[in-house]
Structures are given as structure tokens and as C-alpha cells.
Design a protein that fits this description.
disordered C terminus, 1% strand, two-stranded antiparallel sheet
Length: 417
């Protein structure tokens, strides 16, 4: 069922290690802000909004830089070096959180991390695309994302345990302790270093990767004139709607915990439940989409995302939130891997770094937008952020249904392979 290049698997495992560390911060940073460890001017914003802003800056900066990073790796004809440089910057900045004592310093660190992530994300996804054929692109995207998201889901769970377990007595002195927050930041940095080692040893650039030409086909309007919007751009909008929905929960963690009468560990389980469902479902959906097509999965996933997002605003028990997050993970998987694969089918040779950055940028913008929107809208009622996410998913259904056609590649229309 899965015809996956070993380098895709190796890259997925490497990104899994990196994702463990990076996802720590989604749980740790709001708690870090709420703990009083960070001082200084909050610019008149609420604590929830500041937490959302700190989290969102990562995606906002990454989204700005990703098209540039993708273009640079296209022009250079290499991917591996970009991945390693990005991971190295992430390792250094993870450690820097321990000495950040103000909101401004937290924001600056997250901005630098956004640049690092742009280098890693665009080169990684282009590498997977170039190691794939139309007959296995969906499966490869699903496998890669499954590994990466497994790390992304495990990170928050581990982060909650590490933060609650602190402070830790260090063996180098009787009076030297490491706080739970510092332990989490150090673990994130270590995970990035492990990821660098794995990429260096196990991953290589495709043998036939060549520098791209000067012209990159990025468009908003459909150049063929058949639809109003370019299909890759439309898939980016659908990805933005999906990622906005999945990001609504993190910045309102204290409010969620108070509403459901729970602690950080249960919240981490709820966060991880979504990622686990997403990781398990993506390889299956991606592989099936190689045989029966991508578009139907994307539309169905966006439609299923509407109720699975909205219901999170009305749950009253921790187990109900866990179930809602699992179902949301399944719906997200139906969108993510097929959308990446369909965009890969449509991308021009030698331009996958720049063209697929449309979707990776949209994903990052959606995460940031969701975090900001949730931190702002929660003041109007607990259900309001989730209703907003459901409305965006509805728009996504309409756009993909009217602006995107199935790939004409032999693999995605054939049911006999």
C-alpha cells in the first residue's frame, strides 16, 4: 500500500525529533507567560492575547520568509543544507528562552525561530515532493507528515509532564536546580540537535535536482481562465482554513482548563489527541488519494471540520474535548496530505520549493491567525472562536468545490494501479 522512498522516511523521522521540541513551546509558552516569569510592558493587551501573539509571531515571520527560502533552495538546487541550517538556529533559540525575561525578548526569539522554520519547512516539503512520483506522492506526503506530527503530538504531552515535574535537582551541585520551564526549553534544544544528526546521516538530495529557471509560476488568478482562482492558491486558502481551526485551542489554555476543571496534563492529552489522529490517518488517506483522486478527500475533510471544530466550543467535560479533537484530527488529515499531493502534482519541475510554499505559508498563517483570533474572540464567549473556525471551513468547502479540479495525472485518476 505504501511505496515510500527510504529518504522520505528518514526525513520524517528527523523532523519528528525536531517537532517534539518545537511543539513543546505551544504548551510551555502560554504557561510561561502566565507564571509571572516574564515581565515588562504588555502593550495594554490581555494575558491571553499576549500569549497568542507570542505564539503567532513564529508563523507570521515564517510565512513571510518561506517563499524566499523556497525560491533560494530552488535556485541552489539543494535542500538538505537548508534543512540543517534551520534546525541549528532552532536549537540555539530554544536555549535562549531560558534567559528571556520580557515580552519583547520572547517576541524577538519567536521571530528568529520563524526564519529558521522557513528554511527547514520549504526545503523538507520540496525534498519529499522531488523524491515522489504521481503514483505515490500522496502516500509519501502522508508518511512524512505522520512522522512529523507524531513528534508534534508527543511534544505537548511531554511538555506538560516536564513543567509540572519541576524544579529538578541537577547532579552538579546541591543547590543548583532547573525549573520545569528551563527543563522544557533544554529538551526542545536537544531534540533539534538530534534532528540535525539524523538529517546529516540519513538524508540526501535527489540525484536529479537542478537549479530552477528565473521565472516562477506563482499566481492568484487561474492562468488558464477556467476558474477565477489559481488551483494551488485555492488549495493554500483551504489549508489556511484548516490550520486556523486546529490552532484555536492552544492560546486559551488557561480558559479551557478552568472551564473543564483540569490541569496542564489533561490539556496536553487533548492537544495530542488531535495530532495523533492526524498522524495515523494521513498515510492512509494520502495513499488512497494516489488511486482515487485528491479533490474529494479535501472537500469532505473541510466539511467534516465544521462540526468537529464547533463542538469544541460547547463541551463541558475533558473526555468530550478529547473525542472532539480526535474527530477534528481525522478531518484535518483528509485535507492536508491530499492538498499537498495535489499541489505537488501541479507544481512545475524545479519549482516545488517556491510553489509548495504557497501551502506551507498558508498553514503557518492559519496557525498564527487562529492563535490571534482565539486570544481575541474568547472575550465574546467560549464558543465564539470555534464558531469562527467553522465559518472559515465552510468557505473552504465552497472554494475547493468551485475552483479546483482533480489532477489530470495518470495516477490520480486511475483506479486500476
Amino acid at each position: 500500500m505504501f511505496e515510500t522512498d527510504r529518504r522520505v522516511v528518514a526525513l520524517g523521522i528527523a523532523r519528528m525529533a525536531d517537532a517534539v521540541g518545537n511543539s513543546f513551546l505551544i504548551v510551555v509558552l502560554p504557561l510561561y507567560v502566565a507564571s509571572g516569569a516574564v515581565t515588562g510592558e504588555a502593550f495594554g493587551f490581555t494575558e491571553a492575547f499576549v500569549s497568542g501573539l507570542v505564539l503567532a509571531l513564529f508563523g507570521l515571520v515564517s510565512s513571510v520568509v518561506q517563499p524566499i527560502a523556497g525560491r533560494l533552495s530552488d535556485r541552489a538546487g539543494i535542500r538538505k543544507l537548508f534543512v540543517i541550517i534551520g534546525l541549528a538556529i532552532l536549537a540555539v533559540t530554544d536555549v535562549a528562552f531560558s534567559i528571556a525575561g520580557s515580552y519583547v525578548s520572547l517576541m524577538l526569539i519567536r521571530m528568529v525561530q520563524g526564519v529558521a522554520a522557513a528554511l527547514t519547512i520549504t526545503a523538507s516539503i520540496a525534498l519529499v515532493n522531488e523524491l515522489s512520483a504521481s503514483t505515490n506522492r500522496g502516500g509519501n506526503m502522508g508518511i512524512y507528515n505522520a512522522f512529523r506530527l507524531t513528534g508534534f503530538g508527543a511534544g505537548p504531552l511531554a511538555a506538560g509532564i516536564i513543567v509540572e515535574g519541576g524544579p529538578y535537582q541537577l547532579p552538579i551541585g546541591n543547590d543548583i536546580q532547573l525549573s520545569g520551564f528551563d527543563a522544557a526549553f533544554a529538551t526542545a534544544a536537544f531534540a533539534a540537535l538530534v534532528s540535525i544528526l539524523l538529517v546529516h546521516v540519513l538524508v540526501s538530495d535527489p540525484e536529479e535536482t537542478a537549479p530552477t529557471s528565473d521565472d516562477v509560476a506563482l499566481a492568484i488568478q487561474d492562468p488558464t481562465g477556467r476558474h477565477l482562482l489559481d488551483p494551488i492558491f485555492t488549495l493554500g486558502l483551504a489549508t489556511l482554513a484548516m490550520s486556523t481551526c486546529i490552532a484555536l485551542l492552544a492560546p486559551i489554555q488557561p480558559t479551557v482548563n478552568n472551564r473543564l476543571d483540569q490541569g496542564p496534563i489533561l490539556f496536553s492529552i487533548q492537544f495530542a489527541a488531535f495530532i495523533g489522529a492526524l498522524a495515523v490517518t494521513q498515510p492512509i488517506v494520502g495513499s488512497v488519494s494516489d488511486r482515487v483522486g485528491r479533490r474529494l478527500f479535501i472537500i469532505a475533510g473541510l466539511a467534516f471540520l465544521i462540526p468537529t471544530t464547533l463542538v469544541q466550543g460547547v463541551v463541558v467535560e475533558p473526555w468530550q474535548m478529547i473525542v472532539a479533537r480526535v474527530l477534528q484530527g481525522v478531518s484535518g488529515a483528509m485535507v492536508f496530505a491530499p492538498a499537498l499531493a495535489l499541489a505537488g502534482d501541479l507544481a512545475q519541475k524545479g519549482q516545488s520549493g517556491a510553489q509548495l510554499s504557497v501551502l506551507t505559508v498558508a498553514f503557518g498563517l492559519g496557525i498564527s491567525f487562529g492563535q490571534l483570533a482565539s486570544g481575541f474572540l474568547i472575550r465574546y464567549g467560549f464558543i465564539t472562536p470555534f464558531a469562527f473556525g467553522g465559518a472559515l471551513a465552510t468557505i473552504g468547502v465552497i472554494l475547493v468545490s468551485t475552483q479546483v479540479e482533480e489532477s489530470t495525472s495518470e495516477a490520480t485518476v486511475s483506479t486500476t494501479d
